[in-house]
Amino acid sequence: MTRARFAFLRNLACFLVGLIGVCGAIHATFPVREDVPVMSAKLRWLEAHGERYDTVFIGSSRVFHQVIPSVFDTRLAELGKQNRSFNLGADGMNFPEIFFAAEQTVRRIPQLRLLVLELGNIQRGLEDESVRALYWHTPELTWMTIRSIAGSDSDWSKKAHLISGHIGLFARNWANLGRGQQWPRIIHEKPAVVPVGEDGCDVVQRFMDAAQSAEFEKLKSKRAEEGATPVLNDPSLSAGLERFTAQMRAQGVKVVFVKMPAFRKTNPPTPNADMLDFDSPQNFPELWEANDRYDPHHLNLNGARIFTRLLAERISALVEDSKR
Predict the structure, then answer these.
(1) What is the DSSP letter of 274?
(2) Where are the alpha helices (H) located in 34-83, listed in sequence order?
(3) Cα 295 to Cα 215: distance, rounded to the nearest angstrom
(4) What phi-psi label fits residue 169: left (phi over 0), alpha (psi between -120 and 50 degrees) or beta?
(5) Is 308:72 a contact under the CB 8 Å cutoff?
(6) Do 257 and 275 form a contact (C-beta atoms < 8 A)?
(7) In whole angstroms, what is the distance from residue 42 CA to residue 204 CA?
(8) Under DSSP, is residue 31 helix (H, G, I), strand (E, B) or coil?
(9) Is the peptide bond before 96 cis (omega within 30 degrees of 0)?
(10) Which residues pair with 118 in a beta bridge?
(11) pLDDT digits (tens, 9 = 90+) for 79-109
(12) SS3 state at 291
C-alpha cells in the first residue's frame, strides 16, 4: 500500500469515527427531533409538565381519538383512586414507534406508575418517508423491524425493498438530516403547549354516513362468522415485548397492553404481561354500535366515553388484583 493511499484510508477512518461520534452525541443529548408532527409538541409538554401525570396512554388513532384522560381520571376517582393521565397517541402509531414513545415518556416522568399501550403489530411498510416515519429509527428498533420483515411470509424482493427502506430511514435519522432548524429552539426555548384537545386527546364528534354504516355492519357480521382472528407469528415483536415489559418492571412502571375494539386481519403476539382485550363484539357489544363510531374503525365522542370508562374499570380491577 502506498503512503498516499494509507493516509487517505486513515483520514477516512478518522472522519467516519468522528461523524458517528458527533451524531451519537446529538442523539444522546436531543433524542427527539423538534419537527415531528404531534409527537414533538406532546413530548415537549411532558418535558415541562411531566410531574403532573401518573398514567400515560400510547397508541394509534384508536388511542389518540378514543381515550379521554379526564373521563378516565374521573371514573377512577369514583372508584376511590386518584390519578392524572395523559394521551400520547398519534395517528398511525404502531410498534416499534410505541416502544420509542414509551421510553421517552419514562425519561420525562420519573414518578410514572402506569403505561397503557395499544397492542398492535410492527410497522413494516413504507407508506411515506416523513419525519414521523424516521424519528424512531434507533439502531435497536431498526434491527427489530428488519428481523420482523425478514421473518415474514413476503417474497424476498419485497423484503429487500422494505429492509433497504428502513435502513435508509435509519441512516437519515442517525445523520440528523433536517435537524438544523431545531437549534434556534434549543437556544431560545419556546414554552411547551398541549397540541390538541385536553391532555393530548383529540376526540371526534361526528357520525357515519349510510355507506360507512353498511360497511361497518358487513365487517361486524363477517367477524361474527369467522370468530377470532389468527395470531401473527412475529418472533421479533414477541422478543421486543418481553424485553420492554421486563425493562419497565425493573423501573417500577406497570404496563398494561390493550387490544382496541377494531377490525384487523391478524392479532399481534400476546405479551407476558397484563392485557385487556376489547376486540370482541360478543363480549363488549356496547363498543360495537354504529351510532358510536365516526367511521367503521373508530369510536366517536360518545363511543370514546363508553370505552374510556370501561378501560378505567378494568385497569382498576387489575391494580387491585396485583396488590393481593
Answers:
(1) E
(2) 39-49, 61-64, 69-78
(3) 9
(4) alpha
(5) yes
(6) yes
(7) 19
(8) coil
(9) yes
(10) 258
(11) 999 999 999 999 989 999 999 999 999 999 9
(12) helix
Let me know: does 237 contact 150? Beta carbons within 8 Å: no
C-alpha cell at 308: 374510556
Per residue in 288-304, pLDDT (tens digit) is 999 999 999 999 999 99
Concatenating the DSSP letter of every residue in 152-172 gives SSS-HHHHHHHHHHHHHHHHH
Say how far apart CA 139 and CA 311 lie, in whole Å.
34
Residues 15/44, Cβ–Cβ less than 8 Å: no
Alpha-carbon span 259 to 52, nearest angstrom: 27
Which contiguous run of DSSP H or E holds residue 116? strand 114-118
| Residue 295: strand, helix, or coil | strand
Cell numbers describing residue 65: 381519538
What are the φ/ψ torsions at residue 266 (nearest 5 degrees)?
-135, 150
Place of cell 446529538: 26
Residue type, 173: N
Amino acid (1-letter code) at residue 15: F
Pairwise CA distance, residues 62 & 278, whole Å: 12
State pTM to two decimals: 0.87
As a whole number of Å, the CA-based R_g of the chain is: 22
Which residue, 233, 224, 273, is CA-closest to 253? 273
Outline where 109-252 has alpha helix (H): 131-134, 139-150, 156-174, 183-187, 210-226, 235-250
